[in-house]
Specification:
Number of helices: 4
Structural class: mainly alpha
Helix content: over 70%
Strand content: under 5%
Number of strands: 0
Largest sheet: none
Shape: rod-shaped
Radius of gyration: 53 Å
Order of helices and strands: HHHH
């Protein structure tokens, strides 16, 4: 199979236009001279000029048709190139969109996993905080028990008179929990 070289369409169009223009000039000249011969009533010259014009006319029409055909080819090739460029641009746009979408999905998944990890860590922290509050209250109750024991020992040896109201118990932790809605909710409602 012979190797085909791409035709130089621009050069072919220029050649076809030049040939069509030259032939059109020749035809116009022959028709102009024919009109002058008829006006001068030189019928013999008019007949010769008519034959000349009739001989050139098909060549002019073919040359102009060739110009039209090459122009159509140029337009068709330009449209084909435009469509290829548009298809390539669309493919690139879609590939870019797919890459962005894949990257966004991966980032979303990573963010969701990190969010879940942090939430679990927060719940664990809240649970630890609740345990610390319980321990603090127990220790505060133990302090109250020790205060009561010390008071009772003073009463028993006569260093202090018994009080009908008893002694005040430490309540720094309990008061702190009761004064803070957040700590109250954590202490009472978080499992």
């Amino acid at each position: 199979m012979a190797t085909r070289n791409a035709p130089n369409i621009g050069q072919q169009l220029a050649e076809a236009q030049r040939e069509a223009r030259d032939l059109r000039i020749e035809l116009d000249r022959a028709e102009g001279e024919l009109a002058q011969a008829l006006e001068a009533k030189d019928y013999e010259a008019a007949a010769a000029l008519k034959r000349k014009a009739d001989d050139v006319r098909p060549h002019v029409l073919l040359a102009e048709a060739q110009v039209s055909a090459v122009q159509s080819t140029v337009a068709a090739l330009a449209e084909h190139q435009r469509q290829e460029n548009a298809a390539a641009a669309e493919k690139e746009r879609q590939e870019r969109a797919q890459a962005i979408q894949a990257e966004a999905r991966a980032a979303e998944q990573q963010a969701l996993e990190e969010s879940a990890r942090l939430f679990d860590e927060a719940k664990a922290g809240v649970g630890k905080l609740r345990d610390l509050l319980k321990q603090a209250l127990l220790v505060e109750q133990q302090a109250g028990h020790h205060r009561q024991t010390a008071y009772q020992a003073r009463v028993d040896v006569g260093l202090e008179a018994p009080s009908m109201y008893g002694i005040s118990r430490p309540n720094y932790v309990q008061a702190g929990v009761d004064e803070s809605r957040l700590l109250t909710d954590i202490f009472r409602h978080i499992d």
